[in-house]
Amino acid sequence: MRKILTAFTLILCLAMLFGLAGCDNGASSEAKSSSEEPSEPEGPVSIAKEDIKVGVLHITDPDEGAGYTFAHDQGIVAMQSALGLADNQIVRQNNVDDKDKSAIKTATEALLASGCNVIFATSWGFMDTIEEMANEYPEVYFSHGTGYKYNETNFNNYFGRIYQARYLTGIAAGLKTESNKLGYVAAYGTDLAETCSGINAFALGAQAVNPDVEVFVKVVGKWFDPVKETSFAEALLEMDCDVIAQHCDTANPQTAAEKAGKFGCGYNSDMTVQAPAAHLTAPIWNWGVYYTKAVQAVIDGKWAELGNYYGDINDGLIDISPLSDNCAPNTAEYIQQVKDLFKEGTWDVFSGVALSFGDDGKLIKTDKVLLDASGMEIASEGGPSVSDGVITGEMDYYVLGVYED
Fold it and tell me: Whole-prediction pTM value?
């Protein structure tokens, strides 16, 4: 769903990600008269609610009932309900290959032909083509999920601090394991910061409640590969991993864990339905928070204020699914204490202050130095936290206790 970026590209674009650099639309400041009035940016304007038509590009089919596309589509449904849009105001293009530029363009043109004036593209691999389409159709709003490109008129990106939710699921896994070996099926590893930061956050959460925990990672090499997602989970189970986490699209790692009589933490949506005897909890996206905000911004003529969006646990974009009965005793109490820190804004996963818990189950902040797998210091108390730019674009190392097979 997201193509692997070269380090060079990431460095160039990090400033764009967080809106630290503006653009001058190619015009030289020397060519402008000092008395010239600044022109308004060209692009779409507010659209009345009854005239809104939302198009959605999905990489798979929401009818799968779980996983990445399902979670995004549930967000679209939530937005439609919140804003009172009719069914004919939502148009979907499903099963669009995000590695096929021609397919992406054809699907987008179909949305445009149906009258869509707001288009959400939910997969990383859609980004470059959607950028081109946004330039070609300046009167249409384009919003792309999980990328980094944007312009100042009709094209932005949206994502969130999913690593916070992964830390919480790590707590559930660390309390549940008996072998002290946790498995992790990942689409990518250290070659993509999004997956790498998530793996590290999961491991740190598990280590907070169980310092003896180790995390073993198997990398699929793509976002959606049901066969490998199953076989890699099975391989981790054979290595004596008794809780299987994942950063991939299907519920197959969870069903593999259930079949083996073990446990797991899913992703994107609550996968308890797919593996009721195994699933503990999952990092989940409440995409409706963003979709509602974005479409309302179009209606109100405030799209420019939206910018690139990076939500967190406080605005409800991310969370974990309800803890199942498979969880260890007192898991909810441990997790709630860390959730409170997130909500207070007084601590974050990669801040350089480690968490642990006393014998009474009460949270303790420690001055333990955060190290990578080679023993190099990443962050420490009193020093700088790992920046958002590193978490989202540059993190290419595992923390201590994480091993990629």
Answer: 0.83
